[in-house]
Inverse folding.
């Protein structure tokens, strides 16, 4: 089951208001592969709360002068680390509950 933070339900206009980023910048970051919004049946973009947080990180790093290619590497590393943590937790939970049976 996915978290509410992962559900793609926020329009690009609302994301722009929340982040202070222009629609153009948000689309640019998508083109650069820094995030992947969902799509409506008519092709409109839909973002999650996680996407909003990612955009805030991107904006912060860009203000620091970091190039989008480097930010992409950082985001990919972060995703990989999170997947590893999630798998470790699953393994620990499975081991714990199997032993208790």
């Amino acid at each position: 089951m996915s978290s509410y933070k992962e559900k793609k339900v926020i329009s690009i206009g609302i994301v722009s208001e929340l982040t202070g980023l222009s629609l153009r910048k948000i689309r640019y970051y998508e083109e650069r592969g820094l995030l992947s919004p969902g799509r409506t049946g008519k092709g409109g973009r839909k973002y999650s709360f996680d996407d909003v947080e990612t955009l805030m990180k991107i904006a912060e790093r860009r203000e620091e002068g970091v190039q989008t290619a480097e930010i992409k590497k950082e985001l990919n590393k972060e995703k990989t680390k999170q997947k590893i943590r999630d798998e470790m937790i699953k393994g620990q939970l499975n081991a714990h509950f199997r032993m208790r049976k």
